[in-house]
Design a protein that fits this description.
Length: 217
């Protein structure tokens, strides 16, 4: 460990930063509305070799004399503009990574919940379809069939066939799924969209990981 109190002009040549080895934002994030915001004080505090305070964003650097040092995101004052600007970009990418990880964890949880609800709903025994209305139409009678609160129309003059029955079953299962999902704060029952959200976040996270790796030098 080294203890250097930095001022704008007083970093000895041997203690200047020559490499950024890693950046981590250790703070937890919570979902507020649709944003994932960091919780101050939730991260791991690590003593800073530059300013002596403790930081939740950890930056590992290598110094000109080959030693490693731990600093915070705002503790590179007095370094060259290039180092300061690289550090700023790396810290920003590390914050994005932290945010995406939190979003991904939530998205995976939501997918797991939606999958479990879907499996549960598919096991429910189906109510008998009931003909609840017949509406006269110039092209023939339009029937409305229902299972509990779900219902489907049948084209004028057509029968309640296998396709219409399947459509009604889907609508009924969607309603049963929504009742359960709403209890978890989830708003829709489209499994493929939960899966797509996880895939999107995994892609974005992989991109920011690559970007961050490219910033280490
Ligand atoms: Zn510091």
């Amino acid at each position: 460990m080294i203890a250097v109190v930095a001022t704008k002009t007083s970093i000895p040549a041997s203690e200047r930063i020559v490499k950024i080895l890693g950046v981590r934002d250790t703070r937890d994030r919570i979902e507020v509305g649709d944003r994932f915001v960091p919780v101050p004080g939730s991260g791991d505090l690590r003593a800073c070799d530059r300013c002596g305070r403790e930081h939740e964003i950890h930056v590992d650097v290598e110094l000109a004399d080959g030693r490693r040092a731990n600093i915070g995101s705002g503790c590179a004052k007095g370094e060259t503009m290039e180092i300061q600007s690289r550090l700023k970009s790396a810290v920003s990418a590390a914050k994005t990574r932290s945010k995406l990880r939190a979003e991904l964890a939530t998205a995976k949880q939501e997918l797991a919940t939606a999958s479990a609800v879907d499996a549960e709903v598919r096991k429910l025994s189906l109510p008998e379809p009931r003909l609840i209305e017949e509406i006269p139409d110039p092209r023939g009678v339009r029937q409305v069939w229902a299972m509990d609160d779900a219902h489907v129309w049948v084209l004028p003059g057509s029968k309640f066939d296998t396709e219409r029955r399947q459509s009604l079953v889907s609508a009924w299962r969607n309603d049963r799924a929504l009742e359960r999902l709403h209890a978890h704060g989830l708003k829709h029952a489209y499994l493929h969209l939960y899966k797509q959200h996880v895939d999107d976040l995994e892609d974005r996270l992989a991109k920011v990981e690559r970007k961050l790796a490219g910033m280490m030098f």
